[in-house]
Amino acid sequence: MSQIESSWKFAEELVTESGPLAEARQHSLEVGVEAVSPAVGAQLAVATASSRARSIIEIGTGVGVSGLWLLAGAPDATLTSIDREIEHQQAARDAYLRGGVPAARVRLITGRAAEVLPRMNENSYDVVFVDADPGSVIEYVEHGIRMARPGGLVLVAHALWHGAVANPARRDATTTGFRTLLTEVSTSPAVISSLSTAGDGLLQLVKR
Description:
Layout: H1 3-14, H2 19-31, H3 38-50, E1 55-59, H4 65-72, E2 78-83, H5 86-98, E3 106-110, H6 113-116, E4 125-130, H7 137-147, E5 148-157, H8 173-187, E6 191-196, E7 202-207
Helix pairs in contact: 2-5, 3-4
């Protein structure tokens, strides 16, 4: 194991997840939903805490791991979460309740993000988190930037796509999509961007 890999492993193992988070993560493994890693989750909590987020929207509910992390940093925020799998959302709602999140603070929308996002208001959210269909990541980020308030955050999970993005020989559609996204936002005047290598990569954007 290289020094870099050892450092990544250390960063992941340094994070301690609460009981409800650990249960949600185990459930995600059982149903085959890829959740954000503990280190990425901790970064989500830091992001929502530092931005003093009050309104968060999540594209891709999963079974609640990322939602619990987002709300861990913003205990008074409301979370809107979009996913097409109603069973996953039901599991997420249970996870939120076990985590002490009042039902009134969570709004779950069941549907395809491509159909739901155009109806969401622009300049309305402190934090937008993208963790859904990777083949549509560019479209989702475009919506995320539109929906975020000026100074708001757009966070994109799996931005390094299982290590494939850094490999120029990988030219499949998903890898190319992430690579294109990272290249475009790095020079875009609309955002300030940063790429974390934690977990599977976390792209962080601040809307100007």
